[in-house]
Specification:
Oligomer: single chain
Helix content: over 70%
């Protein structure tokens, strides 16, 4: 009877979730650049294409856990290598999450809670936002809910099959979002507390299967990295002396974004240790450096931990890659649909009310592990979203319990629930650390980059102007403005901007490289060669400088030297993002024409 009663809310939840995602996609499609991947999403896309082509991961250990990249490769194959179609596919698949949420709420609280939680999750604005991005939450969110459901079933009813399924889901999560393995350990922990030691050993064995297989693969290519090597650098970004708890930029090279951050971090670590480092050694370098900085000023670090612990619960969806606040301008329903601001306080109350219920204790434990992971590293919407569906479930439980108490005449108990939720809501709305609520200007720069990639330089410049209107001195915006002006043929304006920036940052390799390109365009090829070579010395990992140097050499009729430099570059860095351009230039030399930027 319970199954038939649950069928209707599950079906309605699925229908509403699909309808909302269709509306979301149709509105975002009016700004196509918002569907193009940037930063981490762009790296995932490049890696997924490399996986399909057989060139990734090559002979390096994984920098980032490859679970989502493998899934993205399959979606690219289905969608014909079109990121917008992949986003549409992910949005469709994302309708599974609200159905899982409704099912979990129904299991814990009954049909009324299934209705409330299912519809709340169907309309939760951040779920389609992340489903439309080429980022890890696409898998991490539904997998976490599914793992919680199956774990609870294994704990309550036993059965080796249920236990293996639950552990297998946690194992997949371990290669999608490794820090969530902390939550996976709750399953064997609960089994041990219930004196089911053999089942706990089985659970741990299955949970670690995929992470260990990836680690064995990393060892086979020459570096003993557990799953992926990003942990040490992320720890530094979130806890070093210059960390603010939310920014994911590399403070030692703030203009190095996306995968360029790894290259800059590796270069600086090697310079400090005066030797070439394997990825695991780079990770250890930043982990050790962070602990040294913590030891030098523990009170600062403690204050930072407190800040991150509080920011996790704040109602601002802190951006990482695209800013959700930017999408509100295109999809206004995101502003009004109940989000974290409602479900977090309700969820906290719900978890407290059910603190002695075994199933809810497990749910609370998973929420707590997501919280801890954010505190250990840094806080943003992308890192905290696996907690959202579980808070929706607990919040729906609190609401339905309050409604039952009202029907039963227990007005005082219901009033306490309402007052607690409202009070928490006001507390979470507070902004003691001054986190901006408006669109972060860097988001405009990222959209400008996407507009450029789709061949719309004029639209890209408009986005840059929006960024500069908010923050006139924003370096990435000024730099991007110069590049766009050059590509639009407004070379004099671009050169003026770059030369002013160089005065403030003479050792910025990317800036010197751009200056060299501008000099070359204006016919000053000798000076251009000197600037580009200076850029390559400042940053030996700046691949664009090596390709640009070859282009300038062709201008100076040093054709063989240019050809040799390009061949060396392709031999040493065949998977570089600049490899395609290098091949185009090389092809142009073969046909007697040099191609450039």
């Amino acid at each position: 009877m319970m199954n038939s009663a649950m069928g209707i809310p599950l079906a309605v939840t699925a229908a509403v979730a699909l309808a909302y995602r269709l509306l979301w996609f149709s509105q975002v499609a009016a700004e196509p650049a918002l569907l193009l991947p940037v930063l981490d999403g762009a790296a995932h896309l490049e890696w997924a294409r490399g996986l399909l082509a057989g060139t990734w991961p090559g002979d390096e250990p994984f920098f980032r856990a490859p679970g989502y990249v493998a899934a993205l490769a399959m979606m690219l194959a289905l969608a014909g290598d079109d990121p917008a179609r992949v986003a549409a596919l992910q949005l469709g698949l994302g309708a599974v999450t609200p159905v899982l949420v409704a099912g979990l709420a129904g299991r814990l609280y009954g049909v009324a809670a299934a209705w409330l939680a299912g519809l709340g999750a169907a309309l939760y604005p951040m779920f389609p936002f992340f489903d439309g991005q080429l980022l890890v939450p696409v898998l991490a969110v539904p997998l976490t809910v599914a793992a919680v459901i199956t774990s609870m079933a294994a704990l309550e009813t036993g059965g080796r099959g249920r236990l293996v399924l639950a552990a297998a889901l946690w194992s997949v999560i371990g290669i999608v979002r490794p820090p969530l393995l902390l939550g996976a350990m709750l399953l064997p922990g609960f089994l041990v507390m219930r004196r089911r030691a053999r089942e706990a050993v089985l659970a741990i064995s299955v949970i670690l299967t995929l992470p260990v297989l990836l680690t064995v693969r990393n060892v086979a290519v020459g570096d003993a990295v557990f799953v992926a090597s990003q942990g040490g650098l992320n720890f530094y970004l979130g806890n070093g002396t210059r960390a603010d708890g939310v920014a994911a930029t590399f403070p030692d090279a703030p203009t190095a974004l996306g995968y360029g951050m790894l290259e800059a971090a590796t270069r600086q670590a090697e310079a400090r240790e005066e030797r070439e480092l394997r990825p695991s050694e780079v990770s250890r370098h930043y982990r050790a450096r962070t602990f040294d900085e913590i030891a030098a000023d523990p009170s600062r670090w403690f204050g930072l931990l407190v800040k991150k612990a509080l920011l996790f619960w704040g109602d601002r969806e802190i951006p990482n890659n695209h800013d959700p606040a930017l999408f509100v301008e295109t999809v206004p329903v995101m502003r009004w649909a109940p989000g974290w601001w409602m479900w977090a306080p309700l969820g906290i109350v719900g978890l407290w009310l059910a603190r002695r219920t075994p199933g809810l204790v497990f749910v609370a434990g998973v929420v707590a592990t997501v919280w801890v992971v954010n505190i250990v590293f840094f806080v943003n919407a992308r890192f905290r979203i696996p907690a959202a569906p579980l808070l929706i479930v607990a919040g729906a439980g609190a609401a339905t319990m309050a409604a039952e108490w009202i029907r039963g005449g227990r007005w005082r108990a219901a009033a306490v629930v309402v007052a607690a939720a409202v009070g928490l809501g006001f507390l979470l709305r507070a902004n003691p650390y001054g986190i901006p609520r408006d669109v972060w200007p860097m988001s405009y720069v990222l959209v400008a980059e996407a507009e450029h990639d789709r061949g719309e330089p004029v639209r890209a410049l408009r986005w840059i102007k929006r960024a500069l209107a908010v923050e006139p001195s924003l370096y990435p915006a000024r730099f991007a403005q110069a590049q766009l002006l050059r590509r639009a043929g407004r070379v004099v304006e671009a050169r003026g901007i770059v030369e002013r920036l160089i005065v403030a940052a003479p050792n910025d390799a990317a800036l010197r490289n751009e200056h060299g390109v501008l000099l070359d365009v204006t016919g000053e090829s000798e000076a251009a060669l000197a600037e580009i070579e200076a850029a390559a010395r400042l940053d030996p990992s700046l691949d664009a400088a090596f390709v640009n140097r070859a282009i300038v050499l062709t201008r100076l009729d040093r054709i063989e030297e240019a050809r040799s430099a390009l061949l060396d570059f392709l031999r040493e860095r065949p998977t570089s993002a600049e490899a395609r351009r290098a091949r185009e230039v090389l092809g142009g030399l073969a046909s007697g024409e040099a191609s450039g930027d």
